Amino acid sequence: MESLFYQLVLVAILLAFALPEAPSSASSVKRFHFNVEWESVTRVCHTKPVLTVNGKYPGPTIAVHEGDNVQVIVTNKIARNTTIHWHGVRQLRTGWADGPAYITQCPIGGGKSYTYNFSVVDQRGTLWWHAHFSWQRASVYGAFIIYPRMPFPFSAPIRAQIPIIFGEWWNGDIEAVEHVMTLYGGGPNSSDAYTINGLPGPLYPCSIKDTFIQTIERGKTYLLRIINAALNDELFFAIANHTLTVVEIDAVYTKPFTTSSILITPGQTTNVLLTADQIPDYSNDMFVMAARPYLTSVFPFDNSTTIGFLKYKTTTTSRSQTNNPPMPPYTLPTNLPEMKDTLFATQFLNNLRSLGSKDYPCRVPKKIDKRVITTISLNLQDCPVNQTCKGYSNKRFYASMNNQSFIRPSTSILESHYRNLKSEFTSDFPEMPPNTFNYTGVNPVTENMNTEFGTKVLEVPFGTRLEIVLQDTNFLNPENHPIHVHGHNFFIVGRGFGNFDAEKDPKGYNVVDPPERNTVAVPMGGWAAIRLYADNPGVWFVHCHLEEHTSWGLAMGFIVKSGKEASQSLLPPPNDLPPC
Predict the structure, then answer these.
(1) Edge to edge, what strands does the sheet with 69-76 contain?
(2) 3 state SS of 548
(3) Beta partners for residue 563, in sequence order
(4) For residue 149, what are the contacts with CB-CB under 8 A and spacing of at least 6?
(5) Do residues 489 and 90 lie in contact, with contact meaning Cβ atoms separated by under 8 Å?
(6) CA-CA distance, 420 to 261, in Å (whole number)?
(7) How many CB atoms are located within 10 Å of the residue 444 CB?
(8) Cα 355 to the center of its chain, rounded Å
(9) What's the CA angle centered on 121, arms 116 and 122, to 5 degrees?
(10) Per-residue pLDDT tens digits for 391-430
(11) Which residue among 277, 330, 335, 480 has its CA within the 20 to 30 Å range from the CA of 466?
């Protein structure tokens, strides 16, 4: 009997080591330490100091479980300010941990530390984190993965989960790029390469060794967690000879659908299933994966393509035993859309639908309490006297929402709001465009496009069922704009081209299973209508996730007042909140 007992104990121990770790059913505290520091990095024939977290480029992956409390101690080891934003994490009542500089906190000064303390509530899937000060997120970013409490709502067994993060690389100093753009009011220098997990791939100079290669097994299914961390470019992505099944966007499950490729804007995440169903050739067991820009702008851009490879695991003794990329020439996937393929982009976005199941219902507001219509514009400002301007026609580029170009205050808006100090902002963001005109039909360069500057915020009561219509304009050029809302998920109930019609267009809204996101691609020369419950008290940033546009002022503040109950109120600030 005693022998049988020890045998059972031994079997239990062996099983414990053999089984994969299951998601935790109970919440726990997960602690991480981020050191923001310089690291020498070489890419595309250039070596330079790159701002990193813990010396890694891209930065480390944060992996937690649904319901966990997360504590990240960020220590700033550089002689510049910094902050970190947890992109897509709702930060329920914990706006102090959201991260955008001068919106929810003052920056972390050199040699200082700040602990971001928040809980992951009713969220699961792929998000990401990045710096939210100046253009530091060019290199300071990483994946934020939330493992679900319950099994995935799709039946395919997952062999492995693979993060794929797109980024941009500049051979020069990114601070200098931002400085020159700000000084002269022109467009920024374009990046010199796109990257997959920090690697540009063999289409760029000196980069064969810096190529992302992912080994897979034939017949297995993989979950690709795709993140667009690029600063200024929306991207198409495809894998040669393979289809992808979209199952999640911005950490929200979708109705699955297959596609030859995907469109992903800066700020967005997309989870896809990939089945290794091809028969690799004996001489070439690799398939090209590629990302290149979706072009909707007349501004200069990085007209290049980054590639990596899917490598099928084989039992032969050929070159497949090595992890080196094949020799050129390289053929791009035939299923990769052309750069101006707005038709594919539109069809892809129209295919996105919330899962809307019993376990994961679609809680879209059927009715609204308030509708705000805001134009999204690029602007051309007259050059001040005795200054040199390098924008179009020797003027300065700016950007605006309802002709308001956002200016960050000298202290955080959240702290001013919490302490009832109104000197840093005003709560009179216009809820309609100041003038009604043919937004998408005006001449791009001859109309008056001077904007107004200030720190105006939209303020709503707790619980407001809010609709925001984001209307692109033709000023300078119509462009696809990825608009990110902090602190809330929203439902994209409608999209269209041309000018939004408040009488006709809402009749075609999808209020059954619209896609739920935190970043919406407002179509070029069109509009997008989003709905949300303003149920998260605090101050939140709403802005374009093309970094140049945010720098030009394409942003607004958004305040949700505290409700009547204690559970509907913003928590007090932490003791280590950085001062201004």
Answers:
(1) 46-53, 29-43, 69-76, 113-119
(2) helix
(3) none
(4) 23, 24, 25, 65, 66, 67, 124
(5) yes
(6) 49
(7) 16
(8) 21
(9) 150
(10) 999 999 999 999 999 999 999 999 999 999 878 899 999 9
(11) 480
